[in-house]
Amino acid sequence: HKWKQMAIYEGRQSSSWEEISVMDERNTPMRTYQVCNVMEASQNNWLRTRHIARDGAQRVYIEIKFTLRDCNSLPGVPGTCKETFNMFYYESNNANLWFIKESQYIKIDTIAADESFTQVDVGDRVMKLNTEVRDISNLSKKGFYLAFQDLGACIALVSVRVFYKKCPLTVLNLAQFPDTVTGGDSALVEVRGLCVNASEEFEAPRMYCSADGGWLVPIGRCVCKPGYEEQKDFCQPCRPGSYKASATDAYCTKCPPHSSSHLERASECVCEKGFHRAETDPRSMACTRPPSAPENTISTVNETCVTLEWSPPRDTGGRGDITYSLRCRKCSGDDVKCAPCGSGVHFVPRQFGLSVAMVMVTDLQPHSNYSFTIESLNGVSDLSPTPRGAVMVNVTTSQTVSVVLKERRSKDSITLAWQGPDRPNGAIVEYEVIYYEKNQREQNYTVLKTRSNVMTVDGLKPGTTYVFRVRARTEGGYGRLLTSRSVSLLSSFASLSLSLSLSLSLFLSPIFPLSPPSLPSLCLSPVKLPGSKTYIHPHTYEDPNQAVRDFAKEIDASSIRIERVIGAGEFGEVCSGRLRLQGKREIYVAIKSLKAGYSDKQRRDFLSEASIMGQFDHPNIIRLEGVVTRCKPVMIITEFMENGSLDTFLKKHDGQFTVIQLVGMLRGIASGMKYLSDMSYVHRDLAARNILVNSNLVCKVSDFGLSRVLEDDPEAAYTTRGGKIPIRWTSPEAIAYRKFTSASDVWSYGIVMWEVVSYGERPYWEMSNQDVIKAIDEGYRLPAPMDCPVVLHQLMLDCWEKGRSERPKFGQIVTTLDKLIRNPARLRELANSSNKLLELNVYMGQYKENFSSAGYVTLDSVLYITISELIKMDVTLAGHQKKILSSVQSLQTQGTHVQV
Ligand code: AMP
């Protein structure tokens, strides 16, 4: 009770409150303050407390106990008798005020007695004890004074209790929340919790302290650190023999096989001797060891090719990631001296890290001895000091046919002669001569057969270079070796002695199309092609939820950790985070969630993306990790692509990549699209903004929703025939009559190529959609971007063929790009100036008015324009200035003078 009587000096008369000791009903003495000047009019008696400190509370409660005499019970009192009194407060930082003006007080309330004046005998008096509680809020100064004003009542103030409320210290979700004073008015006080010992924040723990002292709305939590598990309100160390690897795991678990922990609070168990754990192995996995050697090796020699097959090792070491590696050594006749084979020998599918128990070795030397060592390896082989399990196989190669070419030339004929093989594998039945004009080989070749080993070919075009190839056939089939040679026929007859530099090449059968001699050769073996899969449209399911169950894995929400918002999708935000699945390494993921308040249809459309994506498995298609449908929010989890969408990524790195890198990206996209088209999936919205890029610059096709083209894409515009279409990326037939096919995807791919090579420039710049449609119809096509190799622009133009059957297929695009990557010389020739001219026209077209009013009416006149002149004409965008200046520069250097 912070209560004290003080005399009030203010007012017309001195205070009449008296301090009196009485006994209460239990006969304990108590101190009261009384006033009872009912007989006189015009009373104004004040009683004030000393300064009461606020102690940080914003809202303070005042409970008063008092008695009030009923005026009627007092005989002969005048009408001025009152049955109420007033309560006031005054806030102040000064604890020693001795004088406060009446007018400075703020009134809390007028206090009256309860309706009944039940009488209680206290000593010689009769009183009824009333209790009233009032509060004052939004206090901000150090403290306050309370005051009671009597205007002529008969009052005994028995007690005044001043208090505030606190939310008591508590521990929830392993976070401790301190004793907290409640806020003013109805405000909640937000309180950060502190993680208890041996725990760490999973999500920042918070709670709200309500005005009445209760805790509300716990958010976030702490989790026990690795090596500790949760016990009600604290973290307890894992016992020996158990471990907990990650803070997000709930409990300590027994050490997996072949491992142990001897001390408390282990975050992982140590492998037994001879056993190991690979870096990427989850801690929950048993420790493993390297595999034993491969067994039952079989070698099949086919001339200079060897096929090696073997059985997997008997002891896999407890792992599933067995691979094989081969060492090849060539041995001299007596097998005593062996040396590494060198790079001339080829392994199919590869020499190291084979996942199948078979390999084909090609390009061996004929009639030689080889020794192959086949090692079996797994994820812990590199960690183990013991020698690897390996077997050795020795083979001897052979050769059936070898031919040597001789030639004699005249103006329009040539005579070829060759020697048969040294040791033919059976009798030679015939020789086959194939020839074609160099540079035209795939289109136009001629095959001639003969039993002799001389042949004259005539009717050739003078002045032309031909390539001749000869091979022998025995009863066993055609020989694999073919001699090839190019010969130029001179326009006038001349007999030349040629120095024969023969290039030998292995030859594929079936023989056409001819493979270029520089390609690595292959032995043929039956290869099983995977059956081609077709995409199933989720709408073919009666129950769309079944499609989700069939194609997408349900993920438990507890294995997902959301970290930050990275974008906005059609249905809600897109976040990044981590996913940790049982027995798997934690991975970064993107999490799309369905915002609250969705309709059934929205939920279906949202999840349709997962049931489409879940059907794909390709390195250039965004991978679905799974979905969360059993609890809210509904989420789609995909692999995380660090560099985000391709268009923004390219704009950010304008001009920073080599052409090969750009072609590599395009190759990836084409490969993903080939996969989709092989599955008969038509994307309809292929654009750089729908390609995602990871940290290794790998591009992946994304955005597979059903309603996607209709609603999601901000580029989509309504067409006259209804439906929303991203005009700039869409082929004419798809715009005109919604004919969406893989061929229309190819058109869009061409636009993506253009976007990539121009580093995210907007296709057709600022032209309107209507103008784009018109221009395309009139045969206009986007010009080559700056520094674009001719071959790439040609490929774009091919993709933009009006007739959709004339456009290349994605398979052909991949092949073309692969060839460019292997032979980058063809990328050196940059697109010519007529494109620059076109580009310049397009750019200047936007500024036509500005140019003409500044007096630039011919192209000639702009050739030497400067940046300051451009700025004067309101060409202020740096990108446009740059493009216009670089185009005119290249026109200057080429001396082009064109009238516009
Ligand atoms: P969407 O709804 O698929 O168009 O996604 C919206 C945005 O979120 C995209 O433009 C990207 O910037 C980002 N995003 C979506 N998925 C991923 C992912 N797997 N990795 C990284 N960023 C993503």
Automatic annotation (TrEMBL):
Membrane topology qualifier: Single-pass type I membrane protein
Domain Fibronectin type-III: 290-399, 400-492
Matches recorded under CDD domains: FN3, PTKc_EphR_A
GO MF terms, alphabetically ordered: ATP binding; transmembrane-ephrin receptor activity
PROSITE patterns in UniProt: EPH_LBD, FN3, PROTEIN_KINASE_ATP, PROTEIN_KINASE_DOM, PROTEIN_KINASE_TYR, RECEPTOR_TYR_KIN_V_1, RECEPTOR_TYR_KIN_V_2, SAM_DOMAIN
Binding site for ATP: 566-574, 592
Residue ranges occupied by any Eph LBD domain in the UniProt entry: 1-172
Localization terms from the record: Cell membrane
UniProt keyword Membrane, yes or no: yes
EC number of this enzyme: 2.7.10.1
GO biological process: axon guidance
Ranges for domain Protein kinase: 560-821
PANTHER family in the cross-refs: EPH RECEPTOR A5, RECEPTOR PROTEIN-TYROSINE KINASE
Protein name in the entry: receptor protein-tyrosine kinase
Lineage: Eukaryota, Metazoa, Chordata, Craniata, Vertebrata
